[in-house]
């Protein structure tokens, strides 16, 4: 087998720089900073079983969820890379209660991130991920960071992406001009373009939902799941949003994390889970909804706000929305 030849992530970012509205290189630098941090996190994840880095950290995050050591390590690595990179003024992270103000008066961008997604899968050697969104700050440079800088609707994203730490490690991102995926070559320490111009199938035969929630979901969704079963669709649920989303993006399918009686707004976070993946989905020809409305048009009202999520092949998302609507009418 030959060594990989082709376009490195770095070269690709450089070649696309002129696509950006202001083309001054800052956004490119942020993408490079994220790629660098992801390589470090990838290394930590790969040796998690051998070191004392796996396991619980002994505290809970703002969501009341138990933090894992790797959640904390990944958060530190990404924050450090974005701080040193110098282009970012504020970070919203799943692992931090408040906005992280980097006190960087020249930073034009804001990053929202889930440093490690699917962290309950770390200790069992199953795919996990990182999710990020990038926005341009809206208040003048040099002035104090305001909530309007960090709580923008998803349709204002200038870039979004995810890293999947799976059977291979991939970085997938969009700057609003399609979606491209890169696979990490460990021995060379480089991401190479492996999935150019990703397009999701318009329809699919995979549905991904935690069916343990069955007793807590509404009739419309029960009906939609019953319809999927009647059509002999495959049920696939890893329990890591990034991995479930990535599979369905490539193969055609829908991922659902619904509103439940216990959690009417669902579980997933709007700013750094739903919005980021919704931007990528739409850029790849797929769709993302909260069951009624386009995810990217939701106006955030709090930093760690949750939203139900129906994301994946456009025809499947449409059918799910329609089934929910009809059940409400009857
Ligand atoms: O166990 P559940 O309720 O099905 O939840 C699974 C979902 O929760 C998450 O793990 C939440 O992400 P975090 O690990 O970042 O908190 C998603 O990745 C996943 O899809
Ligand atoms: Mg997550
Ligand atoms: Mg997380």
From TrEMBL:
Q: Where is the Fructose-1-6-bisphosphatase class I N-terminal domain?
A: 7-196
The entry's Mg(2+) 1-binding residues are 94, 114, 116
Metal-binding keyword on record: yes
- EC number(s)? 3.1.3.11
Where does the Fructose-1-6-bisphosphatase class 1 C-terminal domain lie? 203-323
Gene Ontology molecular functions: fructose 1,6-bisphosphate 1-phosphatase activity; magnesium ion binding
Q: Which cofactor does it need?
A: Mg(2+)
Q: How is the cofactor bound?
A: Binds 2 magnesium ions per subunit.
Q: Does the keyword Hydrolase feature in the UniProt annotation?
A: yes
Per the record, its GO cellular-component terms are: cytosol
UniProt-listed CDD domains: FBPase
The protein's annotated pathway: Carbohydrate biosynthesis
For this entry, list what GO says about its biological process.
Answer: fructose 1,6-bisphosphate metabolic process; fructose 6-phosphate metabolic process; fructose metabolic process; gluconeogenesis; sucrose biosynthetic process
Q: Which residues bind Mg(2+) 2?
A: 114, 117, 273
Q: What quaternary structure, including any partners, is listed in this protein's UniProt entry?
A: Homotetramer.
HAMAP family, sorted: FBPase_class1
Note the PANTHER family from the entry. FRUCTOSE-1,6-BISPHOSPHATASE-RELATED, SEDOHEPTULOSE-1,7-BISPHOSPHATASE, CHLOROPLASTIC
**NCBIfam families attached here?**
PRK09293.1-1
Return the similarity comment: Belongs to the FBPase class 1 family.
In Swiss-Prot or TrEMBL terms, this protein is called: Fructose-1,6-bisphosphatase class 1
């Amino acid at each position: 087998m030959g060594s990989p030849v082709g376009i490195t992530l770095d070269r690709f970012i450089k070649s696309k720089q002129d696509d950006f509205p202001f083309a001054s290189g800052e956004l490119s630098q942020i993408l490079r900073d994220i790629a660098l941090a992801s390589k470090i996190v990838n290394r930590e994840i790969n040796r998690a079983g051998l070191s004392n880095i796996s396991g619980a950290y002994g505290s809970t995050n703002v969501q009341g969820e138990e933090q894992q050591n790797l959640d904390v390590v990944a958060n530190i690595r990404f924050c450090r890379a974005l701080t040193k990179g110098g282009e970012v003024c504020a970070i919203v992270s799943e692992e931090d209660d408040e906005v992280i103000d980097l006190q960087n008066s020249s930073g034009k961008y804001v990053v929202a991130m889930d440093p490690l997604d699917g962290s309950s899968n770390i200790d069992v050697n199953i795919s996990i991920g990182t999710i990020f969104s990038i926005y341009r700050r809206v208040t003048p440079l040099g002035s104090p960071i305001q909530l309007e800088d960090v709580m923008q609707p998803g349709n204002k994203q200038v870039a979004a992406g995810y890293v999947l730490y799976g059977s291979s490690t991939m970085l997938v991102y969009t700057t609003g001009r399609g979606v491209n995926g890169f696979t990490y070559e460990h021995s060379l320490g480089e991401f190479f373009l492996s999935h150019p111009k990703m397009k999701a199938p318009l329809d699919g035969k995979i549905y991904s939902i935690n069916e343990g929630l069955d007793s807590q979901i509404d009739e419309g969704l029960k009906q939609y799941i019953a319809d999927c079963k009647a059509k002999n669709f495959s049920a696939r649920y890893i329990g890591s949003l990034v991995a479930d989303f990535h599979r369905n993006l490539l193969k055609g399918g829908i991922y659902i994390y619904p509103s439940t009686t216990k959690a009417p707004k669902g579980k997933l976070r709007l700013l750094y889970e739903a919005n980021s993946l919704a931007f990528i989905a739409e850029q790849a020809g797929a769709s993302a909804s909260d069951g009624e409305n386009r995810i990217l048009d939701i106006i955030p009202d709090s930093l760690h706000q949750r939203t139900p999520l129906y994301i994946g092949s456009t025809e499947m998302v449409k059918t799910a929305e329609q089934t929910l609507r009809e059940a409400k009418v009857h």
